[in-house]
Write a structure and sequence with these properties.
Layout: E1 4-11, E2 17-26, E3 29-31, E4 33-34, E5 41-45, E6 55-56, E7 58-59, E8 63-64, H1 67-90, E9 102-108, E10 115-117, E11 122-125, H2 139-153, H3 161-182, E12 190-191, E13 206-207, H4 228-232, H5 237-249, E14 251-253, E15 256-258, H6 263-277, H7 284-299, H8 304-315
Parallel strand pairs: 1-8, 5-9, 9-11
Antiparallel strand pairs: 1-2, 2-3, 3-7, 4-5, 5-6, 10-11, 12-13, 14-15
The chain binds [2(R,S)-2-sulfanylheptanoyl]-PHE-ALA (TI1), calcium ion (2 copies) and zinc ion.
């Protein structure tokens, strides 16, 4: 809508207070439209139907605190935080570098246990209340979905088999990096922990530190070679996620010791790989070469960072 920038407040999915919430005042109504980032961040309500984008969220108070508001508040705020990470770290203006507006829709479908990037916008289900609660309540989820948009603008990794698992892993990696940069005190190497199984504490949908906790492989020799889930894109991502974990935090895996170089460098190295070397058909082996080359470009061919990257991929059986 055309209006004036305003600043409201909100309550998130986990009943967290969210402030500031960038909104737009137009004709006495406040809209979830943030004009301070790129060409804007817009958050919509599908009203539990599946037509997109739905209705731009608004109220007359600029305080978004109802139960219906909570998923929208987090989707809006976390999209802004993810935008901020890419802009402040790499100078990237929105997912495409051109400031294209970020659109999110919440309350998609009925008890929908997922979230996705549909090629033009982010979409979040409410979950069924047992497996998931509204998925935009997880910063790592929001950053995961928005990173798919970045990937589609850059390497455009095909969403199946090894390139698809790389696509998924890159989204998990940046979901985690953004979490560390934004919520450092409660950041972790778990994926979806804030919105997964509300009745079970300490679990997550995936773990980068130990993918096998969720039945995902942490070594290439254990990769899934079937056709389910587009060739196991959410399963074989565990192999790359484990390598990324080792790059950042270090550790010994399958007899290979890796010296961690930290979360910031993990992000810069994978960002350069995704924007400069990976292509739509990249395999795991080609991804190793891409990430090694990115580290070499950034830190030097014989640097500790490049050595760490090589060792991490060797540790998960990718050569
Ligand atoms: C439309 C079906 C395909 C969904 C693919 C999207 S990108 C995806 O990967 N969604 C994430 C959502 C997510 C992210 C982080 C943490 C929790 C949940 C995902 O992992 N979906 C799982 C449930 C899946 O599709 O198997
Ligand atoms: Ca997490
Ligand atoms: Ca849980
Ligand atoms: Zn995904």
């Amino acid at each position: 809508v055309t209006g004036t920038n305003s600043v409201g407040t909100g309550t998130g999915v986990l009943n967290n207070t969210v402030s500031p919430l960038n909104t737009t005042l137009s004709s006495g109504k406040y809209y979830l439209q943030d004009n301070t980032r790129g060409q804007g961040i817009f958050t919509y309500n599908a009203n539990n139907k599946s037509s997109l984008p739905g209705t731009l969220m608004s109220n007359t108070t600029n305080a978004f605190t109802t139960s219906t508001d909570k998923a929208a508040v987090d989707a809006h705020f976390y999209a802004g935080k993810t935008y901020d990470y890419y802009k402040s770290t790499f100078g990237r203006n929105s997912y495409d570098g051109y400031g294209t507006s970020l659109k999110s829709t919440v309350h998609y479908g009925s008890k929908y246990n997922n979230a996705f990037w549909d090629g033009t916008q982010m979409v979040y289900g409410d979950g069924d209340g047992t497996t998931f609660i509204p998925l935009s309540g997880g910063l790592d989820v929001v950053a995961h979905e928005l990173t798919h948009a970045v990937t589609s603008s850059e390497s455009n990794l095909t969403y199946q088999n090894e390139s698809g698992a790389l696509n998924e892993a890159i989204s998990d990696i940046f979901g985690t990096v953004v979490e560390f940069k934004t919520q450092s005190s409660k950041a972790d190497y778990l994926i979806g922990e804030d919105i997964y199984t509300p009745n079970i504490s300490g679990d997550a949908l995936r773990s980068m530190a130990n993918p096998t906790l969720n039945g995902d492989p942490d070594h290439y020799s254990n990769r899934y070679t079937g056709s389910a889930d587009n060739g196991g894109v959410h399963t074989n991502s565990g192999i790359i996620n484990k390598a990324a974990y080792l790059i950042s935090a270090g550790g010994t895996h399958h007899g290979v010791t890796v010296s961690g170089i930290g979360i910031d460098k993990l992000g810069t190295i994978f960002y350069r790989a995704n924007t400069t070397y990976l292509t739509s058909s990249s395999t795991f082996s080609q991804a190793r070469a891409a990430v090694v080359q990115a580290a070499s470009d950034l830190y030097g061919a014989t640097s500790a960072e490049t050595t760490t990257v090589k060792n991490a991929f060797t540790a998960v059986g990718v050569n």
